[in-house]
Amino acid sequence: MLFGRFRILGKLTLLVLVPLIGVVALAVPIVVNRVDVARDAQSISDKVELATRVGSAVQELQEERLLSVGYLFGLIQAPELVVQSAKTTDRIQGLKRLDQPATPELLDAVDGLKRLDTTRASVINRTIRPDLIVTEFTAVITPFFDAMALSKSADLTTSTGGQVYALEQSLRTDDMVSQAIAYLTAAAVTKNASLVGLFYTTLAQLRLVISSARPYFTDGQYKLYLGALEAFSSRVGNRFLVAAATDPDAAVRLLNPKTLFPAMRSVIVLGGFVEKRVAADVDVAVEDSRDSALRVAGVVGGGTVILLLVVVALSLMMARAVARPLRRLTFSADRIARAAETELERVADDDLEHARAIRLDPVDVQAQDEIGDLARAFDRVQNTAAKLVERQVAGRRNVAQMFGHVGRRTQNLVGRQLALIDSLERRETDSDRLRELYRLDHLSSRLRRNASSLVVLSGAVGANDHMAPMPLSDVVRLALAEIEDYTRVDIEVPEEIVIVPAVLADLTLLLAELMENATSFSPPHTRVKITGAELRGGARLAIIDQGLGLTPERIAEENSRLTHRERLDLAPSEVLGLFVVGRLARRHGIEVTLADTPEGGITVWVDLGPEHLLAAPEPLPSIRLGPIQATVPSHHTEFGPLLAGSSGRSVPGSALPFDANVLNRATKTLEAGRSWNAFAPVRAAAPALEAAPHGSPAQSVPQLPAPRPASLAAAPYMSGSPVAGRFPPLELPSAGRFAEPEPAIVVEGPIVMSTPSDAIQLPHQRLEPLADQRPAQPHAPEARNAAPAAGPLRRRVPGNQMPLEAGPRPTAAPTPTSDDALAAREAFDAFEEGVSRAQWDVIEQDMSSPPAAGHPPLTRRVPGATLPATDSPKTPAPASPPQPLDPEAARAAMEQFEFGVARAMSETQPLPEGQPR
Amino acid sequence: MSVSVDNRRTRLRPALAAVLTVLILVPAAILFARVWGTLSDERDSTELEKQGVEYVAALAPLVSSLAEAQSSALAGVAAAPGSLNAAVNGVAAVDQRLGQTLGTRERWTDLRDKIDKLPKAPSSPLLVFQAHVEVTDLALALYNTVRDNSELARDPDNDISHLQQAVAVDLPAAVVQVSRMGDLSQLVAEATPQLRTQLAPQFGAAVQSVNSTVNSLTDNLQAAVDDTGSTTLSGELVSGLDSFRRGVESLTRGANPGGVPNTATMATAQSQLQVSLANLSGIVSREMTALLDDRTDDLDSQALVALAAAGAAVLLIAAAVVTTLTGRNRRGPEQTTESASAGREPGATTPAYGDDNATWRERSGALR
């Protein structure tokens, strides 16, 4: 359609334009016509004015004519005539200098004055006949009337035109009167009857003209006119006029030239006044008509212009009133569409944890008309849409939260299961069943990993129970413990890379998922290799499998999925592990990249940034001493039992199967201590025995090879017992091994450690310590965190080890420098003695084990306080450590309290989701 | 830096505006004062001229009655005609009002004394004539005084100038000369030959001056009609001038220079002349008053326009001052809001949607 192309403004303009054009088209002719009328009136007015001027000038001529006749007969003197002639010439020539330009005819008439020169000369010489004077003057005068052409231009149908005609007639009749007077004067002097005849002829013409012009005069004018004539006839006398018609000779005798001449001179003036009166009337009428025409033109034109302006202004305002809200609405809608788009994109694609409420601006239109309704409807639409999206998001979030809760609950349950298994393992003496138990343990670990993955998938943040840094290699081993085919994984990770505690739990999970993927997507006979190296201040792990691999497109897709947030429901379930990995990696800023293994399969690069690592070798030695002493007394009690366990291992009297677990736990403790030393000298809590051997490799890489070959250096290694602690369960779960271990372990330790890449040993290594760690936790009454395997110990360690460390430190310090194996042994013994003594001190105060004062391991094992400890896995760790009195009792009280609370809550309400139990 | 510049500018601007206002106001005020002065001068002079016209109109009966008194005194009538007293009283009334303004008081009192002392008792006709000539000359001089003092003689307009010439110079002179001519003709006719030789030239001069003054009157009236804004003047003058001239003609005919004067004709002509003189004088006075009224109206409207223009200028300046004052007041808060809004970006106050820290939640979640 034609109108479709116009915008609203255009349509309104079109709507308004047509009538406006019509109005203009109607108004313009009217205005033009009126202006023409006014111009005509103005020209008439000009002509009338010219006529009065010409009439005045011509009157002088007529007067001169009369004076000439008078002079011819001696009625006046020559000077008077000459003065009049000069005056006449002056006035006639003055017609050339009027305001308005003279017409050619008028100029010709003025120039015709020259023809009078001879006549004037003849008059002065008195050599001319009076009738000739009259005719000569008339011949000069008449062109003036013709030049003005008043009657030709006058429109007689109008009153103004009639007046103009009357004006010309009065001019001409005045001239006739003048002629008649001249004839009469001449006749009065000469008594010539023929002159009387001429006079009478002129008078007859005059009467004819007057009567014919009668309709064009107004009454007042005609009366004046008649008055002027009457003045003439009264001076000559009615008798004469009557006689002139019948008997000219007798009539002539009635006239007295001496009295007649002055009378005639005064009469001749009167005609001029009448002309002026007519001219004034014409002027007034013409000006009236001109003014009215101009007024009409002005009113019509001005009205049209005002109408135009008003209509244009109104239409503009209307257009704005319509178009502006529409434009604002459009703008608003556009903006809202953009905002909504980004909002929805964000809400849809972001991780759930980042989902925020949608906030859309209201549409910015307050109009009350249809546009306002449209705007409000639009507003409702967008609000509804926003609510829809919000509800979807809320639903998704709730589902995710349910995931998280289920995962956490599973985590807790599995943690408790692990604790149970652990305790079973510890009590089990049958090696076959113990092996089964270990398998069960392993399965549970994997189950717990799955639960952790579920928590991560839900978007929640899993608890990180790690408080102490840990070497990367141990992290890898922890992860390895949580996958199925751990036997197929080879580890080549340097020990000296230490991970900060904040990322430990998630990094473990991340690596476990990657290794799980690597093992499950590669043939069973292939091996998966994990290597690690420092890289640009950070560290890089490579998990290399020899599987089928992926297409490059798929790799690119998965890589992008690792770096970009994606919604859970968009990720295919088969790569759920990668999803977990991606989420964890993004959370901690770990770069995970998939790449092809050159021989086939997939290589996963895990890049840890510097912020994930501890780079603290330098400050270690310098600050170590001071804080150690300072912190000696405070943590004595807390860590006592643990170390007592470990030291108890060396006590001959307590050689029991339990000792192995205790030893494991102690091993872990020592492990923790080692890493402790490595990264935080201030809190350096590791026992001196461990600190010495592990500190040296951690401090500097080049030192690493040095201690290894040296047996003296190896001795503390063994005494450090992380290795020793792991091996016994690997080969034999029996505690007997541990009872008299030291020399043997010293031999084995270095071997194992020097070949960490050993395929067979390493998995076992991982498996066992981890399996052992768990049982150890329930055993230890102070192990509050049942769920994370390594967590509780790590967390507990930092504060507690300090005092223990302090004692041995002076003896341990010289150990590495002395290079003396015996000295090292002595130092170790002394340390253990000190530890056991400390343990004894603690145990004496231990409320939970009053009877078994002599045997710390037993006393700790006996009370069964472990069982309530497992019931309350969530016991807040930080709460108890500060208590100087009795951690066990405090914990028991707390657990009871929590248990009560949990039961109360489970009874009162349907198991709130946030609480695992 | 910029603040100080701004302050200086904002402080300078009103000062500059004030200076400009004064600079505009002063010339405008001067112009207005000049225009106003000119207008008031013209109004004053117009008012004066109107008073002069009134005085002149009052003098016309006096002149004609003086002429009549002269004729009657010469005819031997002892008592002065009633018209003379009426005319004197009329002029006295007018002089009472306007004499001070026009400066005619002394002349009028002098003239009035002379009129009162005109010889009542029949004495030598020549003496009587001389006394009347003296009085009429004084009356004509009074005309001139009025004309000069009322500035009628210096009127810039063509029509009024000619009309005043006609009504205040030619018309009384014509009347006076015509009556003298008539009286002289009688005196000459009755005088002894010795006296006749003395009076004859006077008579001839009177006849001449009658002709010339009548012609002059006619010329002046014609000139006035030629260039007048009045539409009624020419029509009114036709009959008035005609009758006046007819009166003059008939009186001249009655005086009959060179022949025996016709007393009866002269008597009728005398009365006719008086009527036509009153008529013509009235016409001309009316026309002049109307013209002067027009001029007064014109001046009034001009004064109104000038006042309106001055008022508009004052109003405009007042409006400008008010707007600058209020505008400065309004600009004050505007500037503060501007600076306030400039201080903080609109979007800066409320953090955008996805801006809040992503790790915060994670951290809080971790704490939880």
Beta strand count of chain B: 0
How large, in whole angstroms, is the Cα Rg of chain B?
Answer: 40 Å
Principal-axes shape call of chain A: rod-shaped
N-to-C CA distance of chain B: 53 Å
Mean pLDDT of chain A: 70
How many beta-strand segments of chain A? 8
Question: Biggest interface: chains and residue counts?
Answer: A-B, 39 and 30 residues
Strand residue content of chain B:
under 5%
Structural class, from helix and strand content of chain A? Answer: mainly alpha
Number of helices of chain A: 34
Task: Kindly state the percentage of residues in helix of chain A.
Answer: 55-70%
For the biggest sheet of chain B, the summary is: none
What does this structure look like?
The complex is a heterodimer of chains A (917) and B (368). Chain A is mainly alpha-helical. In chain A, 70% of the residues lie in helices and 4% in strands. By secondary structure, chain B is mostly helical. In chain B, α2 runs antiparallel to α3 and α5 (158-190) packs antiparallel against α6 (193-226). The two termini of chain B are 53 Å apart.
In terms of topology, how is this protein built?
The complex is a heterodimer of chains A (917) and B (368).
Chain A: H1 8-72, H2 78-94, H3 104-111, H4 116-125, H5 130-148, H6 150-153, H7 159-190, H8 193-213, H9 219-236, H10 238-246, H11 248-253, H12 257-349, H13 370-427, H14 431-457, E1 470-471, H15 472-480, E2 489-492, E3 498-499, H16 504-520, E4 528-535, E5 538-544, H17 552-563, H18 576-588, E6 591-596, E7 602-608, E8 613-614, H19 619-630, H20 636-650, H21 657-679, H22 688-699, H23 711-720, H24 722-731, H25 736-739, H26 742-754, H27 761-779, H28 791-806, H29 809-812, H30 814-818, H31 821-845, H32 856-861, H33 866-871, H34 887-908
Parallel strand pairs in A: 2-4
Antiparallel strand pairs in A: 1-3, 3-8, 4-5, 5-7, 6-7
Chain B: H1 2-74, H2 82-102, H3 105-116, H4 125-149, H5 158-190, H6 193-226, H7 233-255, H8 263-343, H9 346-349, H10 358-367
